[in-house]
């Protein structure tokens, strides 16, 4: 995909075969407002509570902002905050919501299984090139 090309917006009302083909071709489905905004907002609030004081919402634009030094996977700050995110029931249960399961059934055209281990991908400004270094997931999931 050309970096200047806009995302293709899909809708759950579309023919399931079209959604499957699009997913196979592009590797994603972008479905605006598919998951209830309140659920997404609550999960964001819960995760940001665990990232405090390192990341918080900016009152002016309501977007997460970094406070302090950038951090990345396996550094001291990461080792402090990531286990807290992993312990959030809201983080794990989000992927078991009926609409998520329905979407995955539609895309796969089969019954689905939600993998029990979830991984949060978190990046902070100022660490270009260090987003997710080579690693073993077992380190943060032991």
Task: Walk me through this protein's architecture.
- The protein is built from six helices and two strands.
- The chain is mostly helical and 142 residues long.
- A two-stranded antiparallel sheet has the order 1-2.
- A hairpin with a 6-residue loop joins strand 1 and strand 2.
- The protein is globular, with a radius of gyration of 17 Å.
- The mean pLDDT is 87.
**Low-confidence spans:** none
What structural class should be given to the helix and strand makeup?
A: mainly alpha
Radius of gyration: 17 Å
Number of helices: 6
- Strand order in space, largest sheet: 1-2
The run of helices and strands is: HHEEHHHH
Overall average residue pLDDT? 87
| Secondary structure tally: strands | 2
Cα(first) to Cα(last) distance is 37 Å
Largest sheet: 2 strands, antiparallel
Beta-strand percent range: under 5%
Shape: globular
Share in helix: 40-55%
């Amino acid at each position: 995909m050309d970096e200047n090309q806009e995302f293709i917006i899909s809708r759950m009302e579309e023919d399931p075969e079209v959604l499957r083909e699009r997913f196979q071709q592009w590797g994603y489905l972008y479905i605006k407002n598919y998951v209830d905004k309140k659920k997404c907002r609550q999960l964001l609030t819960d995760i940001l509570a665990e990232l405090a004081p390192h990341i918080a919402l900016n009152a002016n634009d309501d977007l997460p902002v970094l406070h302090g030094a950038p951090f990345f996977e396996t550094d001291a700050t990461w080792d402090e905050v990531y286990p807290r995110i992993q312990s959030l029931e809201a983080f794990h249960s989000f992927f078991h919501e009926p609409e998520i399961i329905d979407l995955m059934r539609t895309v796969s055209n089969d019954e689905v299984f939600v993998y029990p281990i979830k991984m949060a991908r978190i990046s902070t400004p100022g660490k270009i090139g260090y987003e997710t270094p080579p690693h073993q997931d077992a380190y943060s999931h032991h």
